[in-house]
UniProtKB/TrEMBL annotation, chain A:
Residue span, AAA+ ATPase domain: 149-283
Gene: dnaA
Single Gene Ontology MF annotation: ATP binding
Name the record gives this protein: Chromosomal replication initiator protein DnaA
Source species, domain of life: Bacteria
Automatic annotation (TrEMBL), chain B:
Pfam families: DNA_pol3_beta, DNA_pol3_beta_2, DNA_pol3_beta_3
Protein family membership: Belongs to the beta sliding clamp family.
Subcellular locations according to the entry: Cytoplasm
Organism of origin: Candidatus Giovannonibacteria bacterium RIFCSPLOWO2_01_FULL_46_32
GO cellular component: cytoplasm; DNA polymerase III complex
SUPFAM superfamilies: DNA clamp (SSF55979)
Taxonomic path: Bacteria, Candidatus Giovannoniibacteriota
Protein name as catalogued: Beta sliding clamp
Task of the protein: Confers DNA tethering and processivity to DNA polymerases and other proteins. Acts as a clamp, forming a ring around DNA (a reaction catalyzed by the clamp-loading complex) which diffuses in an ATP-independent manner freely and bidirectionally along dsDNA. Initially characterized for its ability to contact the catalytic subunit of DNA polymerase III (Pol III), a complex, multichain enzyme responsible for most of the replicative synthesis in bacteria; Pol III exhibits 3'-5' exonuclease proofreading activity.
Location of the DNA polymerase III beta sliding clamp central domain: 132-242
Superkingdom assignment: Bacteria
GO MF terms held by the record: 3'-5' exonuclease activity; DNA binding; DNA-directed DNA polymerase activity
């Protein structure tokens, strides 16, 4: 007979012996907290119940417990707040009016202090499309069997594509589904800051113990570990301890592990040991589905055509997509009318960063800077590999992003033949398929010159 | 039991006690008060199982004893009798009152059925002046949530360490924090607990006397000991948000204006506020003013300018005027300071040159 059964049988006896009102008031939310060496500890929801049980019902309780388990010698009482608010309710002073959507809240206020997870990131609100289905499937497998399959799970992808959402959803789902587990979500930057302050306070030991205790550790944005040798080392030990104990670890980053600069070989190989999945940019249908779900969630009433247009115009980033949705909704609400497609276009054109406005010279300059070669050497007719590769990359980018014609590109690079440009373009396409490092480099170069535009 | 006391004293004690009774249907004794006479004190007790209060009343005790009677009945009775002095006696479980002109019996309950007050063991307590505690609690509780969905937000958070007492409350849209330095307190251990907002409202009423009170808490309860009363409340079980991180340290716009000007103008503008209670504030360094505007599609439109010294970037932000009107009166300075970081970040309001009270409010979305 376990404690629960024992207590419910005892309650059956007590219920017969006391009045209904007394029973409901004093025995509601009571339970056996502990039973050891003949001493039972009964938990009461508040101080009044505790006093009452102790002073008025002690004999009853003792008798009925003893009739079932004769070796019980004594009963202790203690206050153990139940999860639901108990006791008498006083009517609120005034009716509670729900906050309008327009009122902003303090950021990150609803983060659960125990797990650091934000409950708003749920798996059901995560839209799955071809761009992220692999990551989603891997996440589901981890949720089903934490620590067994795919350990560690490494998810990477660009900004605003839902990495954090997926990561937190894994934590929230495991928290909700299975038996209680110790789960913790942390960004690599916070991990580092915590380590530094624990060193300052001479509490590294506590720090170590804290992190080795989790059943699931989710580390967001691990690319910020780069250049932090001490943090990497500490994290390496934490990771090993968790991994050996069969605890699940999940990482995210904006690039694959190999492309994270200045990360120790040991840590790198650990990150790659499990499974690595990427989240790419959503295609039109997924963007539209995301918009629709966001609009439904926030009760934003916008016509289908407007949503379609937003999905068409904003192509890369889900966060931007959400921003655009908000802007359009606010505008239409403010002007109190349904916005036409042209209105939407003109509003969004102010907000969308023009992606293709870089000039060929800017691209060349950025490429030269990135590969650390003198800009003018790109224009030279040389076959040195350290020059050839950047030149090909620059040609590829001008072709891809600016839609420059091959003869134009050839001319731009000191009067080369247009076939050279064609060759360069095709070669880079080929290479990126094989070499993820190159792909990463190109992405970063792109980010650089696109960000200069602001 | 037979006691004799001044109606005035009894009346005020009973009305305080009545507020702490409950309308519990299952256990009717909870809407009653306990009157007990032991040795040389008369004590009135009431509880709703969340809060409990015990008030001492001066009077003459002929016989010790106790009685439990419905709070509403005895309160209405005491409010309507002309006598200055009354004599209370117990007959069985009923209260018997006899004067020259009347005889009254109030039906009661067996005193042994009245809830036993929990013992509150407190390792350390702090001593504070009652008006100061009252003023501080009042200035903070206004920001607490009144919905019970998140119990920790429907509470006031106390943080006591050494001689500083920090109290804070937030409903996630605004936050108020008061810092009190208590000269007589030196707690070595950091103590932190959450008191339900409703209990704080009751504390405000009790803290009216100009005296020093003692305050202490254990894991589950807080206790306040005043000159003639003892108040116990359960604590909220939960963790208050880590709010200190959201209080910004640097600002892009700082404006200083006269408190009364701001307040009267907000109230004036509120007449024309829309359904969302929104008021637009424009902080203009060049105009040396805060421009306030409101518009209601049916009522009309209004705009006004409050002279202020504004430094930094100009900024326009929209707020719920009620939140402003809740927080600003709590500031005890002639001039108040608005600190902003754009139209999407919290605005911090405090007295000029006074950091003991800060009120943080989130703007509303929109243009």
């Amino acid at each position: 007979m376990n404690n629960e059964e024992l207590w419910s049988q005892a309650l059956n006896d007590i219920e017969l012996a006391v009045s209904r009102a007394n029973f409901v008031t004093w025995f509601k939310d009571t339970h056996i907290l502990d039973f050891a060496d003949g001493v039972v500890t009964v938990g009461a929801p508040n101080g009044f119940s505790k006093e009452w049980l102790e002073n008025k019902f002690h004999k009853f309780i003792l008798k009925s417990l003893r009739s079932r388990v004769p070796e019980i010698r004594a009963i202790n009482y203690s206050i153990a707040a139940s999860s639901t608010p108990q006791a008498a309710r006083i009517k609120p002073r005034k009716e509670f009016a729900p906050q309008p959507e327009e009122q902003l809240e303090f950021k990150d206020f609803y983060v659960d202090p125990k797990t650091n997870l934000n409950p708003k990131y749920a798996l059901d609100t995560f839209i799955v499309g071809s761009f992220n289905e692999l990551a989603h499937a891997a996440a589901l497998a981890v949720i089903k069997n934490p620590g067994r399959v795919y350990n560690p799970l490494f998810i990477y992808g660009g900004v605003g594509l839902g990495k954090t959402h997926l990561l937190q959803a894994i934590g929230n789902a495991i928290l909700k589904n299975g038996p209680p587990k110790k789960i913790y979500y942390i960004s690599s930057e916070k991990f580092s800051n915590e380590l530094v302050s624990s060193i300052q306070n001479n509490a590294v030991h506590n720090f170590k113990e804290k992190y080795r205790d989790f059943d699931l550790l989710v580390v967001d944005d691990v690319q910020f570990f780069s250049n932090k040798t001490k943090t990497q080392e500490e994290f390496f030990y934490t990771f090993n301890a968790l991994h050996e104990a069969g605890k699940q670890v999940v990482f995210s980053s904006d690039r694959p592990p190999k492309s994270i600069p200045d990360i120790g070989e040991r840590l790198l190989s650990r990150m790659e040991a499990g499974v690595i999945v990427d989240i790419s940019e959503p295609e039109y249908e997924s963007r539209l589905a995301i918009l629709k779900s966001k609009a439904a969630e926030r009760k934003i009433g916008l016509p289908e055509t407007t949503l379609e247009l937003i999905a068409m115009l904003i192509q890369k980033n889900i966060r931007e997509l959400e921003g655009a949705l908000n802007t359009i909704y606010m505008q239409s609400k403010y002007q109190n009318r349904v916005l036409s497609n042209d209105d939407v276009k003109s509003i969004l054109s102010k907000n969308i960063k023009p992606k293709n406005a870089a000039t060929p010279s800017q691209i060349i300059k950025t490429v030269a800077e990135f590969y650390d070669i003198p800009e003018k050497s790109i224009y030279e007719h040389t076959r040195k590999t350290e020059i050839v590769r950047p030149r090909q990359v620059a040609m590829y980018l001008i072709r891809e992003d600016l839609k420059g014609s091959y003869p134009f590109i050839g001319q731009k690079f000191g009067g080369m033949d247009h076939t050279t440009a064609i060759h360069a373009y095709e070669k880079i396409i080929q290479e990126t398929k094989k070499d993820s490092k190159l792909e990463e480099e190109i992405k970063r170069i792109r980010e650089k010159y696109q960000n200069q535009q602001k | 039991m037979k006691i004799q006391c001044l109606n005035k004293n009894l009346k005020s004690a009973v009305s305080v006690a009545e507020r702490n009774t409950s309308k519990n249907q299952t256990l009717p004794i909870l809407n009653s008060i306990f009157i007990g006479a032991e040795k040389d004190t008369i004590k009135i007790r009431a509880t709703n199982l969340e809060t409990a209060v015990e008030i001492s009343v001066s009077g003459k005790i002929h016989n010790a004893g106790s009685v439990v009677v419905p709070a509403k009945t005895i309160n209405s009775f005491l409010n309507n009798i002309p006598e200055e002095q009354i004599i209370l006696q117990v007959q069985k479980n009923n209260l018997f009152i006899k004067t020259d002109s009347m005889e009254t019996i109030i039906r009661g309950y067996p005193p042994e059925d009245f809830p036993i007050f929990p013992k509150v063991d407190i390792a350390e307590s702090i001593s504070m002046s009652s008006p100061e505690l009252r003023f501080s609690l009042a200035s903070v509780v206004t920001a607490a949530s009144i919905s019970d969905i998140k119990p920790e937000l429907a509470s006031v958070c106390f943080n006591i360490f050494k001689n500083s007492v920090k109290i804070a409350a937030t409903d996630s849209f605004r936050l108020a924090e008061k810092n009190i330095v208590s000269k007589e307190t030196r707690l070595e251990k950091m103590t932190s607990f959450l008191v339900p907002q409703r209990s704080v409202q009751e504390m405000l009423r009790l803290l009216e006397n100009d005296e020093n009170v003692k305050l202490g808490a254990n894991k589950n309860q807080i206790i306040i000991l005043g000159g003639d009363y003892k108040f116990i409340s359960r604590l909220t079980d939960g963790k208050f948000p880590d709010y200190e991180q959201i209080i910004p340290k640097s600002f892009k716009t700082i404006a200083v204006a006269r408190k009364n000007d701001v307040l009267s103008n907000i109230k004036l503008a509120s007449v024309f506020a829309g359904k969302l209670n929104d008021i637009t504030l424009f902080f203009s360094p060049s105009k040396k003013a805060i421009l306030m505007s409101t518009a209601h599609s049916e009522v009309g439109e209004h705009s006004a300018s409050v002279s202020a010294s504004v430094q930094g970037e100009e900024v326009t932000a929209k707020f719920n005027w009620r939140y402003l009107a809740d927080g600003i009166p709590q500031i005890n300075s002639e001039y108040i300071e608005f600190n902003l970081n754009g139209d999407q970040s919290p605005m911090l309001i405090k007295g000029k040159g006074d950091n003991s009270y800060v009120y943080l409010v989130m703007p509303m979305r929109g243009i």
